From TrEMBL:
Name of this protein: GTPase Der
Subunit details: Associates with the 50S ribosomal subunit.
Binding-site positions, GTP 1: 8-15, 55-59, 117-120
Species in which this protein is naturally found: Saccharopolyspora gregorii
Binding site for GTP 2: 182-189, 229-233, 294-297
Keyword DNA repair assigned: no
């Protein structure tokens, strides 16, 4: 689903306009100085088309001043959105800040629209025209207050969105997709609430009166993430969602809809079969994996050692996972989640050039050739990484390679190229 980023100085009426675009007044809280806003993105629907509105407000003018802060918004908007909407107070006109932002936006390959806000009557219509000077095309006069012009603006926005892209992850440049999974009571809801912060209450009110959105858009560490299928986690009173079988189907679907899975375990309790099953689902689905050991506030020295042992013994298939120890209750180390997600996704996205791959492989094979089978020495001729997401290595050989040797190749491949947080697949094609 395409993403629209809304950029503008404080007090140009950005939040009012966003509320207009969303068609509901409660959705966005006021910009309050000193309050960082965790949740900045909202689902919108116009003419049957769904899109995401990212309100880039909430950045405080830092040491470098307002101009730098707004320019940073614009940079962020350009890197995450399919289109950018610059909101200008037409009654004030283009200030030095807008000119600086316009310079950044003109370099952008994304479409940019200029909303000339506070054009409340005919008298101020000329103010809108003056904004041609920004060099970003036709200024669109609107009145956030009266709602005038917002329909035309929405039409124009839909026009500039790229055509619906094929179902390739990341192809839209939209927020990355995260599944928050784990057996019951490990603290998924608590963690989601912790990540979304105070916005939660506001959003719950809205969810009660409109259609319940299935995903949560959450800003972590300056980036917007899409937590998929969190509807069940957001409700305070959760419906007993039937059998474990259905819960497991839902977990599987969430993992498949995501690029990276955050698997929560209760670190204060022994690891169970059910935990391992969820981890297994992530590996099978070929998604990046971040293991979150929650309830760390309840973990003492003794338990910590035992958990390390359990993980060491049981996680043989996923030693490469990123791991963070957090407490959703106290907030401890929750800030480490976003960097872990980034590392895992970066690995998941990686493609090793064929040349580099083969020079590494020929050294490896020369030093440790595959074991002889049936009197024959299989040769590895060539390797290529067929694709990322998940990284998949194809080995072209003259004969079958034993599972033990494949694991050895994978281990060495990881030692050489990293891939922390991502599964790696190795397939063998035997050439006759
Ligand atoms: P979910 O079923 O995975 O969504 O789990 P919940 O978020 O509902 O949490 C289950 C229980 O664990 C609740 O009573 C939470 O208050 C508690 N809990 C969650 N995270 C923590 C934590 O980090 N520390 C402690 N001590 N309790 C937690």
């Amino acid at each position: 689903q395409p993403v629209l980023a809304v950029v503008g100085r404080p007090n140009v009426g950005k939040s009012t306009l966003v509320n207009r675009l969303l068609g509901r007044r409660e959705a966005v809280v006021q910009d309050k100085p000193g309050v960082t806003r965790d949740r900045v993105a909202y689902d919108a629907l116009w003419n049957g088309r769904r899109f995401t509105v990212v309100d880039t407000g909430g950045w405080e003018p830092g040491a470098k001043g307002l101009q730098a802060a707004v320019a940073q918004q614009a940079e962020m908007a350009m890197s995450t959105a399919d289109a950018v909407l610059l909101v200008v107070d037409a009654q004030v006109g283009a200030t030095a800040t807008e000119e600086a932002v316009a310079r950044v936006l003109r370099r952008s390959k994304r479409p940019v629209l200029v909303a000339a806000n506070k054009v409340d009557d005919e008298r101020t219509a000329a103010d809108a025209a003056a904004l041609w000077s920004l060099g970003l095309g036709e200024p669109r006069p609107i009145s956030g207050l009266h709602g005038r012009g917002s329909g035309d603006l929405l039409d124009a926005i839909l026009d500039v969105f790229p055509e619906v892209p094929h179902e390739q992850f990341g192809a839209t440049g939209g927020p990355r997709r995260v599944a928050l999974v784990g057996k019951p009571n490990v603290g998924k809801s608590s963690l989601l609430n912790r990540l979304t912060g105070e916005q939660r209450a506001v959003v719950d009110d809205v969810a009660g009166t409109t259609v319940d959105p299935v995903d949560s858009l959450v800003q972590l560490d300056g980036e917007v993430w899409r937590f998929v299928d969190t509807a069940g986690l957001r409700k305070r009173v959760r419906t007993a969602s039937g059998t474990e079988y259905y819960a497991s189907l839902r977990t599987k679907a969430a993992i498949e809809a995501a690029e990276v899975a955050v698997v929560l375990i209760d670190a204060s309790e022994p690891l169970t079969e059910q935990d391992l099953r969820v981890i297994g689902m992530v590996i099978e689905a070929g998604r990046a994996l971040v293991l979150v050991c929650n309830k760390w506030d309840l973990v003492d020295e003794d338990r910590r050692h035992r958990l390390d042992k359990e993980l060491d013994r049981e996680m043989v298939r996923a030693r490469w996972a990123e791991r963070v120890n957090v407490s959703a209750e106290t907030g401890r180390s929750v800030a480490k989640l976003a960097p872990a997600l980034r590392t895992a996704l970066e690995s998941w996205d990686t493609r090793i050039p064929t040349g580099r791959l083969n020079s590494w492989l020929s050294d490896l094979v020369a030093a440790s050739p595959p074991p002889v089978r049936g009197g024959k020495q299989p040769k590895i001729l060539f390797a290529t990484q067929a694709h990322p997401r998940p990284p998949t290595l194809v080995l072209f050989t003259t004969g079958f390679l034993e599972a033990g040797y494949r694991r050895f190749v994978e281990r060495r491949f990881r030692e050489e190229f990293g891939f922390t947080g991502s599964p790696v697949r190795i397939s063998v094609r035997v050439r006759e």
